[in-house]
Amino acid sequence: xxxxxxxxxxxxxxxxxxxxxxxxxxxxxxxxxxxxxxxxxxxxxxxxxxxxxxxxxxxxxxxxxxxxxxxxxxxxxxxxx
Length: 81
Fold this sequence. Notes:
It is a single chain. The chain is of the alpha+beta class and 81 residues long. It has one domain. 23% of the residues lie in helices and 44% in strands. It is built from two helices and four strands, in the order ββαββα. It has a four-stranded antiparallel beta sheet with strand order 1-2-4-3, with helices on one face. A hairpin with a 5-residue loop joins β3 (50-56) and β4 (62-70). The longest helix has 15 residues, at 33-47. The N and C termini lie far apart (50 Å).
C-alpha cells in the first residue's frame, strides 16, 4: 500500500451504552478501485470493521471512515472480594 495512506483512531459513543472506535483513512486517487475494495474487505473480515462513511473529494481522494464496537468487560470486583 502507498505511504500516503493516513490513519487516525478515536472513540465516541453514538448511543448510551454503545461505544464505537473509528478509523479514518485517506486513500490517494492513484489507488485503483480494486485495491481499495480489497483493503476494505480485508479490514472488515479480519479486524471487525464496518463501513461508516465514504467521501470522494473533487481531486479524487477517498476519505473513508470505518467503525467497530468497543466491547467492555463488566468489572467483577464484587465477585472477587
